[in-house]
Amino acid sequence: MNSRRPPFAGGRWEHVVGWLFVIPALVMYGAFVLLPLLMSVQYSFVRWNGFGPMTWVGLDNYIRVLEDPDLLGTIFNSLRLVVFFSFIPVSLGLVIASIMHRTATGRYGALARTVLFLPQVIPLVAAGIIWGRLLSLPGLVNEILRAIGLDDVTRAWLGDFDWALPAVGFIGVWVLLGFCTVLLSTAMTKLDPSLFESARIDGASWFTEFIRITVPLLRNEIGVCLTVTVIAALAAFDIVYVSTAGGPGNSTAVPGIQIYILAFTEQRIGPASALAVMLTALVLIVILPFQRLNREA
User: Fold this and answer.
1) What are 158-168's pLDDT values in tens digits?
2) Which of 69, 33, 14, 16 shows the shortest CA–CA distance to 280?
């Protein structure tokens, strides 16, 4: 009696079927993510205008980026935006989600989460246009300041060298706060209520619950929020381009804006690719600690 099993019997067949579903996604990922990434690395070592022959220059494009204060300044601007796009939304989201978990329940909690999440649904280009008008000199923000007697504070927020970047950062807070709040609020509904009840019986305040129970148990979700928002800050383009286009001067210029200008306006593909590769490396350097935090949780 032949006891040999068919070649695709049982688990082997399921394995093959699984790969049949995965391969199209891998092909698309390779064609539209990995291949362009490798080409960007290649272009970062050449001098090329996008049309003529390429000239190998080695690390010259990277040296130019590091020696150009305007190009290097865009990286520092993106790091400053991390505070607004990531740390503030995550911190506020934690506090708001904790308060909602403690007080707002039922349909009121659902309504609050819906209102907070609405900015996340609005396209970033539309958000940039809306806030560009609200923060203009005759905009609603300045009108409110004048109405409460703060005329000296009014200004063209997105046209001020000192306040343009914080104003762009405020737009990022408005957009990303809802995402962080909803994600963290949803995670809180899965926490064991007996932990909070025991803490309240022992007389723990809201702040003690927040520090000793909520934050440690939401470590994974906080890591996800930080990962998504930090990437949004370092790769910012839409909001900055629509609201300020990198101005005034270079006060709000970020790598995404400068890469676009170098590649499509000045036809300097080499420096643009070098800046893009450096930005990718920066994202990985900043994100890897958060990923390690998630694995250890």
Assistant:
1) 999 999 999 99
2) 33
Q: Is 203 left (phi over 0), alpha (psi -120 to 50) or beta?
A: left
Distance (Å, rounded) from C-alpha 106 to C-alpha 259? 47
Where is average pLDDT lowest: 143-152, 229-238, 284-293?
284-293
Provide the pLDDT for residue 5: 56
What is the C-alpha separation between 270 and 292, in angstroms, rounded? 33
Residue 16 domain-assigned? no
| pLDDT value at residue 10 | 53
Q: Give the residue-averaged pLDDT of 87-114.
A: 82
- What Cα–Cα distance (Å) separates residue 160 from each residue in 13, 131, 164, 247? 64, 15, 5, 9
**Inter-residue contact 199 to 102 (CB < 8 Å):** no
CA distance 79 to 67: 18
What CATH number is attached to the domain comprising 197? 1.10.3720.10
- Count of structural domains within the chain: 1
Instruction: Mark out the alpha helices in the chain (DSSP H runs).
Output: 11-29, 35-43, 60-67, 69-82, 88-102, 106-121, 124-134, 140-147, 164-188, 193-201, 206-209, 215-217, 219-234, 238-243, 255-260, 269-296
Range of 137's domain? 70-296
Going by DSSP bridges, is the β-strand pair 55-56/46-47 parallel, antiparallel, or unpaired? antiparallel
Contact 213, 196 (CB under 8 A): yes
Single out the residue of 176, 163, 180 nearest to residue 243, CA to CA: 163
- DSSP characters over 123-136: -HHHHHHHHHHHTS
Whether 45 has a pLDDT exceeding 80, the answer reads: yes
In this prediction, residues 163-187 reach a mean pLDDT of 93
